[in-house]
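I am writing to request your help with a piece of structural work I have in hand. I set the record out below, with my sincere thanks for your time.
___
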Amino acid sequence: MSIRVVIADDQAISRHGLRMILESEPGIEVVGEAIDGLDAVGQVGRRTPDVVLMDIRMPRMDGLEATRRLRDVPDVEVIIITTFDLDEYVLEALRAGAVGFLVKDSPPERIIDAVRSVARGDALIAPEVTRRLLGRFVSTMPARAGDPRLAALTPREHDVLLEIAGGHSNADIAARLHLEESTVKGHVRRLLAKLGLASRVQAVIFAYETGLVAPGSVQGAEELRD
């Protein structure tokens, strides 16, 4: 079955460009275009997409509020697509339930990969974006002195959390920790439940905010143990 996508952006040229990129790829169908966040929420209700590409700065309702409203809608995931240097709201959008983000000048193949990754259950946080963008915002926030929820994690779940914080996919984590990908998925599911988090993206934010990792110092679990 095709991956169904709604594009939400107040600029027609951006919507058109994204549609052209996505519809050039077999197995992806753009089922709706929204001109603002309020329209995006309505489009989701009518079009039942799998993925929403959501801009942040839009009239009437911005992408942040729209993402909050879509958080509890089943079987739909939000990817924020934004201008890196301008959007101070990206971190809040991720907290609100978005499963990843792209910058607007991303190459077409990355946009396509993002939609496919999110549709199959992965978050999209490229390692370089994790370090640059989350590092930039989280570094301005006071870190909490740990979190008691971390004590509930097994050593392997702790390792997997560190790998997620480094922006690695399930396949990458499996290779780096010498595990089966299905085993990694199980660890991710359990650690999110133990930490009370809704997505892998929120796990990255949690790791930064609790001081488990510091901006600019993300390494793999194996390196951190050495």
User: Anything to note?
Assistant: The chain has two domains: 3-124, 148-225. DSSP finds eleven helices and five strands in the chain.
